[in-house]
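Moderator note: this is an archived Q&A kept for reference. The question asked for a predicted structure of one protein chain; the sequence and the answer are reproduced below.
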Amino acid sequence: MSGFSDDGRWWWDGTTWMATAHIVLPQLPPTEFEQSGRVEAARGRLRKTGWLSWVNDAGCALSWLALIPFASVTVPALRDYRLWTLEQLAAATAYLLGPNEPMLAGEATVLPPQFVGDSEKRDLAVAVTAAHILLFSIDSFGGQPRSIVLVARPTDVTMEVRSFVRAGFLGGPALTVSSGNAQWVMRGEPGVFTPKPVLDAWRTASAQRQFR
């Protein structure tokens, strides 16, 4: 049986307590997306289209030329990356909390590469369960949730959806997670990033805990 202490600073791995800050998640089992080959296919498409993001960010006269391949190639690839990340989040949550406290909703930073050959950007991800908010740090290149940034009760955090600015223009939605004086921001491409299920799950979990 695994789980966290009430303050979120310690994790019981079934035999001993470990400081949450020292947790390093082992390599997770391959997800369905990885086994199907869709992750590698998405990675290949993104590496070839990094220039599309640069053109869009630059706001230059060529931007309209990039809209069609960006919408038909980059956005679907990023959607695959997001779904893959959600599978990873569910597996990481199950590893930490066991099968009796599954992930209800999750979201992650998923942004396109900025140049040809770059990878997608995935750095932070959040998972909501009935009793916890888990904020993960993701490996910088094509990795998985690896370490824990925050563990908190739903009533001890606040979440909000905002817009972020990129290259002087509105760049899309952002999900902020705040606890005490600390705040973390996850950003995503419009049409890919979907923070509403996370907000809904957090609000439901918070309400249920307040009435216990």
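Archived answer notes: The first helix runs from residue 32 to 36.
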